[in-house]
Amino acid sequence: MKTMHRTARKPGDPLKIEIDTSPIRLNPLDTQDYTSKMICSIMYESLQDGYNCRIIRKDPRTCQVDIHPDYLGDAEGVVQTIIYHLTKENQSPHLGSFLNIKQAVPYVKGLVSSDQLGVNVKGEKRFEVTLDEPSDEIEAVLQSSFLIPGTAGGDVPENGPYRFKRTFEKGLEFERNPQYKMTPADHRTVQTIQFILNVDLEKSIGLYEANQTDVTCHTQFHHSNMRYRQYADFKENHLPMLFTFKVKDDMLRTFIQHYFDKQKLAGDLGHIITPTDSLIGIWESGRTPQKDPPLLTKEEPIRIVYADYYPNGEIIERLAGLFRRAGADVSVSRVSHFNDYYHMDKSGFDIELHLFLPAYMHELSYIRYFIRDISDPEKKKTIIDAIGSEKKKELFGLFENTTHYCPICFGKSLYLQDPCIEGFSVKTDGLLSVHDVKCR
């Protein structure tokens, strides 16, 4: 397979990774934006079954975790971070992920002390977790990016393969962590990683060809560049990031579900996205979008807002076109920077493009988020019953929409990577694997 023509790498050159937005907060315990999570994944290493630990299911309610001797962190540190997340005063966004631990709910309510929780240190590198109810979710939670060994006060050391060094004009720089021993470094190990900010999508390929980046941004690969799929540089895999419309009006949400053609959108975008009819995973309901939308009678324009990152604009343009064909006026607002979009008051808009990245790789991470937008108590009960009986097909159908959210698609990781670089990958959770990155 042929490779792209690039300026030759020099010995000792940093690995330069393109990003399309600056990180907001580099703290793995509470960061919410995707770029921050991605960068945190090279600084902080979570537990990974089969690599730096073994997770053993002793019985339906009990897990034993044996941590590798070379892992930077011990059992006490992991338990202390669990306590941090469960301490209500810390306002952790991940408190709900640990509520199935035995005595967790009474602890959150202040009825029992932390030493009564179902988390027990059994040795320097061993701990056990006991649940209130059997669940296969706990393995995913224990391997989540927000569970890093630390203190009950929320202090976590940089235990990953790279540590922060400096900021510079174009981005951030990280150096190999000399304390990291899970994968020992050698003379070919990349010693420096830089994240290079580029907000101009059209310059991405040129920067790569000029050796100003070694890995292009994997969330903004334009569909017109899919011809590069034939090159050895090209990488592709699914991303768990879910694109949704958050719709204020029930009539508009129903209209979108009946007439918005996700399959055609995906085809027109070169299948850089994967359509879905469920909020909790890739699933097709079998519903065929209707062709001729009825007239929409609205006195005011339909107001839509989105963050201006690819392919958000293409998705919104397709939605606005559908409304205009139905005779409605449309007002579209785009926000240039994700941080501004994240914090802005969107209550004045009818529809917003909402992206969701699960906190851990399990459908319950999606369910915990979207079930909050279901007001019907009977539907909630049906969902809880389906979770308990592990009726996954039924669950997918129950999440075709909530009161305000309807699904569009899942993203993909699409990027170019210098073939001279080995050991780098974007994992199935959308975070980076760089523990053994080398230059040939």
From TrEMBL:
SUPFAM superfamilies noted in UniProt: Periplasmic binding protein-like II
Superkingdom of source: Bacteria
Protein name: ABC transporter substrate-binding protein
Organism expressing this protein natively: Bacillus velezensis (strain DSM 23117 / BGSC 10A6 / LMG 26770 / FZB42)
